[in-house]
Every structure is written in C-alpha cells, then in structure tokens.
Amino acid sequence: MLYICVCVQEEAAPMDEPNKPRHGSMDKDMAELVIPSLPLETRCPPFPLRQYGGFWMPEPFLPGMAAARAGFEPRPSDVLLASFPKSGTTWLKALAFATVHRADHPPRSLDHPLRRRNPHDCVDFLESVFLRPPAEDALAALPSPRVIATHMPCSLLPERVTADDAGCKVVYICRDPKDALISMWLFTKKTLAAAAMDDGNPPKQYTLEEALELFCDGRCVGGPQWHHVVGYWEASRTRPEKVLFLRYEDMLRDPVGNVRKLAEFTGRAFSEKEEAAGVAEEIVELCSIDALKNMEVNKNGRQEYVNNESFFRKGVAGDWENHMTPAMAARLDKIVEDALRGSGFAFGDTSEST
Ligand code: A3P
C-alpha cells in the first residue's frame, strides 16, 4: 500500500531495527533519545501521542512497543488479536479466549474466567506486557495457546510475528470509522471523568468537534484509523493462513458464523459433537454485550485508567448517526474515501460492500 509505505519511511528509522539483540538498552534508548525526538500531539486526551512509523501512538506505550519488537518470541500456536482502539477489541478478546480455551473452560461453566475477570484481564496487550519486565516470564506463564492483543499497526508488529516461515496467527477486527470515532470520543470523556474524580477536579472538556478534527487528521491513538485497517486487510489478503480479518458489523450480524471462523482459523474447529451441543452459540452468549455488562466484575471492577463498565456501551453499528451531523459524517467519509481510493478496500458489512 503506497501511502503506508511512504508514511512508514517518514520517521521510522531510529526504532526500526526490531530483531537486533539490544533488548536491554532498548527501553532506555527509547525513553531518553528516540521518543522525545518524535513529532508530538498533546490535544488528544488522555495521553500525549507521538508519531512513529506513520502512526500516532500513545507516548507511555512506545517503550513497550519497542521492547516487544525486540524481544517477543511468538509461538506458531499464539493468537495475536489486533485492532484499532474502540473497534470491538474487548469483544474479540472475550470470544477468542472463550473459543481457544473451551476445553479447559466450557462456556457454560459458572466458574468461567470471563465471569470473574474483565476480558482485558484475561487477554493482555503485548505492548503493556513489555512495559513490565520480565515480559517473557509473564508470557511464558500464559496457558497455551497464548492469546495476546495489540493496538500496534501491522507495519509496526515485531518482524518475528509477520515472518513467513514462522510467526503466529493474527486476528484483526475492523470497524466503521465513524462508529470507532464516536466510541473513542465517549470513552475518552469517561477516562477524563474518572481522572477528574481521582484528582477532585472538574473533568477536562473534550468536544466532538475537537475529536473529529483530530481523527480526520489521523491524530488519535493508532491513527490514521483507515491506514491501520488497510495494513491488516492487505496482510490478510497476502497471508490468509496467518491473518484473519474480521469486521465488527459482520460479527453483529452473524456472531456464531464468525466464532466458527475464529475456531477454524486458530486450528480448533468445532467438532460435530460440539456443533450438536451448541458450543459456538454458548460462547456467543457468554461474550454478548449484555452478559458481560451484567457481570459483577464489569459493573464494579476497574482497569488502570478507567472503570470496566466503560468498555461496554451500546455495541451496535451506526450509532454515529445519533451524534454526528450529516456534514461531519460527510467530511470524514470523504477523507476516508480519498485515502482508500485504489486500495480495493471498503468499510462496512461485507454483505453490502464487497
Ligand atoms: P460503542 O461505544 O459503540 O458501544 P473496544 O473494545 O475496542 O474498546 O471497543 C469498544 C466498543 O465495543 C464499544 O462500542 C462497546 O460497546 C463495544 N463492545 C464491547 N463489548 C462488546 C460485546 N460483547 N459485543 C459487542 N460490542 C461490544
């Protein structure tokens, strides 16, 4: 993809030697030398963003990304869940975890980990794990097959993940940019409110106009969103046995069919016996937004920056219509359309757009 290659080469050089054995010094180099030299965006709460490899990434996670690129040793059985934020990551984490670990944790079990822990506590982000050394020990302790997540763009994944001869399975979830924007804006407002509660200050204002302006300019976590999506879409076309591309809108329309896809792709297709017993349907039910929302841990638990309940809002397609004016939507649509021209990719439910 031409524009991605161009962007990556803009300012990727300092950190871009992922497989050199300089793991120990990587965090220090990154923190002290490389990160402060990258373009900075401070208008997009809650984190300052730095532009790296053509993408705007949260500054606090860049050392973790660098360490993951240098040190992550994927296993062929690993399942890496990738997403642009607010695109259904939490749902995919729950579905993938429940699917690949169904032998140890039958979805109907009252003691299922997803009934006790938030999906983000069942499946961690690679870049977060590598912020807390020794990451290898934490990863080695995960049950096999290991399910790990990332918001890293495809072009910034560790080379070992994308290597043709090795690597691991990658599952990407894509969402309509207008819904991702609205979800991100409302989530950000919740993180600001949570931070304000902690500090005892009034929450910082963050208007939709401000969020749209930044999003259209690609200046949001993982942005530009459409470049993030297209990078994985292209990888799924060139390496379909390694990269599965799912769409949030398709998953809402046919959750069971998509869970079957996930099971087959990860080498754990449902047996006839499981099909007859409705195991895929049970996984979908366990991971439905209503079921997860109502679990005690998701009503009252908390992640570092935000309450667990913030991860479960409406969970529908097209909610942007309730927030954006037609002019706002047309502006973003035009930017996305121009950026995607010639790529062969289009957003939306595949029953409408392919
Ligand atoms: P909305 O804000 O549009 O409701 P992420 O997990 O990447 O942060 O994405 C959050 C979005 O996924 C939110 O969208 C949230 O409601 C939705 N979501 C969370 N859990 C879901 C589930 N089990 N099923 C469907 N959507 C879910």
Automatic annotation (TrEMBL):
Entry keyword Transferase: yes
Q: Which GO terms describe its biological process?
A: sulfation
Q: Could you tell me the keywords of this UniProt record?
A: Transferase
Q: Which GO terms describe its cellular component?
A: cytoplasm
- GO MF entries: sulfotransferase activity
Q: In this protein, which residues make up the domain named Sulfotransferase?
A: 76-344
Pfam families per UniProt: Sulfotransfer_1 (PF00685)
* Listed EC numbers: 2.8.2.-
Q: Which family does it belong to?
A: Belongs to the sulfotransferase 1 family.
Q: What is this protein called?
A: Sulfotransferase
Name of encoding gene: LOC123411177
